[in-house]
UniProtKB/TrEMBL annotation:
<protein>
    <submittedName>
        <fullName>Ribonuclease D</fullName>
    </submittedName>
</protein>
<dbReference type="InterPro" id="IPR012337">
    <property type="entry name" value="RNaseH-like_sf"/>
</dbReference>
<dbReference type="InterPro" id="IPR002562">
    <property type="entry name" value="3'-5'_exonuclease_dom"/>
</dbReference>
<dbReference type="Pfam" id="PF18305">
    <property type="entry name" value="DNA_pol_A_exoN"/>
</dbReference>
<feature type="region of interest" description="Disordered">
    <location>
        <begin position="317"/>
        <end position="340"/>
    </location>
</feature>
<dbReference type="Pfam" id="PF01612">
    <property type="entry name" value="DNA_pol_A_exo1"/>
</dbReference>
<feature type="domain" description="HRDC">
    <location>
        <begin position="240"/>
        <end position="320"/>
    </location>
</feature>
<dbReference type="InterPro" id="IPR041605">
    <property type="entry name" value="Exo_C"/>
</dbReference>
<dbReference type="InterPro" id="IPR051086">
    <property type="entry name" value="RNase_D-like"/>
</dbReference>
<dbReference type="InterPro" id="IPR036397">
    <property type="entry name" value="RNaseH_sf"/>
</dbReference>
<feature type="compositionally biased region" description="Polar residues">
    <location>
        <begin position="1"/>
        <end position="20"/>
    </location>
</feature>
<dbReference type="InterPro" id="IPR010997">
    <property type="entry name" value="HRDC-like_sf"/>
</dbReference>
<feature type="region of interest" description="Disordered">
    <location>
        <begin position="219"/>
        <end position="238"/>
    </location>
</feature>
<dbReference type="Pfam" id="PF00570">
    <property type="entry name" value="HRDC"/>
</dbReference>
<dbReference type="InterPro" id="IPR044876">
    <property type="entry name" value="HRDC_dom_sf"/>
</dbReference>
<feature type="region of interest" description="Disordered">
    <location>
        <begin position="1"/>
        <end position="34"/>
    </location>
</feature>
<dbReference type="InterPro" id="IPR002121">
    <property type="entry name" value="HRDC_dom"/>
</dbReference>
Length: 420
């Protein structure tokens, strides 16, 4: 048993909502030192063989360059497995890890906040069929803080370095302190997994967690977001359709430039500048240059480029202007329910209260017991004949897992039939 596992066995039995205990031990160096970064096909082949012959779960992490580069691709992949140690892989130099993935077929992956890393891992050919998400496990177990550093500290008694999480991981070569940080991120993931599994089993929630993990592993890649320009920060200030068209044109022009340059869109033009231009609709480049985000170091050619987007929006016929809101894919905002459908509003109030109360009894976040969107959709459009079975079937159709249905179907049946 490792030191971390011994600490975990003593800690896991404690109330997970408590952060008391001795001061955490700083974790400063990986057990086997900082491994070299894998950058060639030959090195990758040796690494693949080593990890295929390893045993137990596979700890996995990935580092992206959010805020620096366009998109969410991986710029470093970290692995650790018993018998193979820790590996660092450069996915720019080794962009296809499908053979490594095949060699690890059937192995359980351990990730922290799996949904954040899985998209970029899938891009390079790594697709787990079994996983354990330590962040989600922490939520289900009732931990108040579920970041990796907080979990390692509270469960295992070690303090991880936190200084390099937001650096530009596209930098080459990667500095040694960054590589040390990256290696330490997977150093204790399997130990953390084992401790959380024991805690979930103690609470009677382990099967719930396994259902959640299976759903994450089986989830398809989500389709591209419709009208992503609508998520521009500050969009709530833009009221008129013509102004919305300016936002759309500027957002699309910025996205094209950012993709071509491989830089974060915010480094090309800020959301604040886009909204300011939409609200002001300047008549010319000179007027645009007076707005926040467009003056100072921006050259005339750039100003004319952005002003061209404003002019394209100004020239659009009314029929091509964006609508005030997207075609709804579900119920209206709850604040309007009392006017639109008072009975639905009463159902929603009762359902929310029941689910929230039960989540508190189970010591887990309400959104993990049942997502707010699922509750809203069920209350807005309940089954034609409301019964315990039909409520369960409706929840299943909305994507709820079986453990969630078993915990909430009866509560929701009562809320739908007797909201008073």
């Amino acid at each position: 048993m490792t030191d971390a596992q011994e600490t975990a066995s003593a800690t896991a039995a404690q109330d997970p909502s408590q952060d008391s205990g001795p001061a955490p031990v700083p974790l400063l160096e990986p057990r086997e030192g900082i491994p070299p970064v894998t950058v060639t096909d030959e090195e990758l082949a040796r690494l693949t063989a080593d990890f295929a012959h390893g045993t137990g779960p596979l700890a996995v992490d990935a580092e992206r360059a959010s805020g620096y580069r366009y998109g969410q691709r991986a710029y470093l992949v970290q692995l650790r497995r018993q018998g193979a140690g820790t590996a660092l892989i450069d996915p720019v130099a080794c962009p296809d890890l499908s053979e490594l993935d095949a060699a690890l077929a059937g192995t359980e992956w351990v990730l922290h906040a799996a949904s954040q890393d899985l998209p970029c891992l899938r891009e390079i050919g790594m697709r787990p069929t079994r996983l354990f998400d330590t962040e989600l496990a922490g939520r289900l177990a009732g931990f108040a803080r579920v970041g990796l550093g907080a979990m390692v500290e509270n469960v295992l008694g070690y303090a991880l370095e936190k200084g390099h999480s937001a650096v530009d991981w596209s930098t080459r070569p990667l500095p040694e302190p960054w590589l040390r940080y990256a290696a330490l991120d997977v150093e204790l993931l399997v130990d953390l997994r084992d401790a959380l599994e024991a805690e979930l089993e103690r609470q009677g929630k382990l099967e719930w967690a396994r259902e959640e993990f299976a759903a994450i592993a089986a989830a398809p890649t989500p389709p591209p977001r419709k009208d992503p320009w609508r998520r521009t920060s500050g969009m709530h200030k833009v009221r008129r359709r013509r102004q919305m068209a300016v936002v759309r044109e500027l957002w699309q022009a910025r996205d094209t430039i950012a993709r071509k340059r491989d830089v974060s869109p915010g480094k090309v033009l800020t959301d604040t500048a886009i909204v300011e231009a939409a609200l002001a609709m300047p008549p010319n480049a000179r007027g645009l240059s007076a707005l926040p985000g467009f003056g100072q170091r921006m050259g005339r050619k750039q100003l004319e480029q952005w002003q061209g987007a404003v002019e394209r929006a100004r020239a659009l016929p009314e029929s091509e202007l964006p609508q005030q809101s997207q075609v709804p894919g579900g119920p209206p905002p709850p604040r309007s329910w009392a006017d639109k459908d008072p009975a639905a509003a009463a159902r929603l109030t009762a359902a929310r209260a029941a689910v929230t109360e039960h989540a508190e009894e189970l010591n887990l976040p309400q959104e993990n017991l049942l997502t707010p969107d699922t509750v809203r959709r069920l209350c807005w459009e309940p089954p034609e004949e409301v019964s315990l079975a039909s409520v369960g079937e409706a929840l299943r159709g909305l994507g709820a897992r079986e453990w969630q249905i078993s915990q909430t179907a009866e509560l929701l049946f009562v809320a739908l039939t007797s909201p008073e």
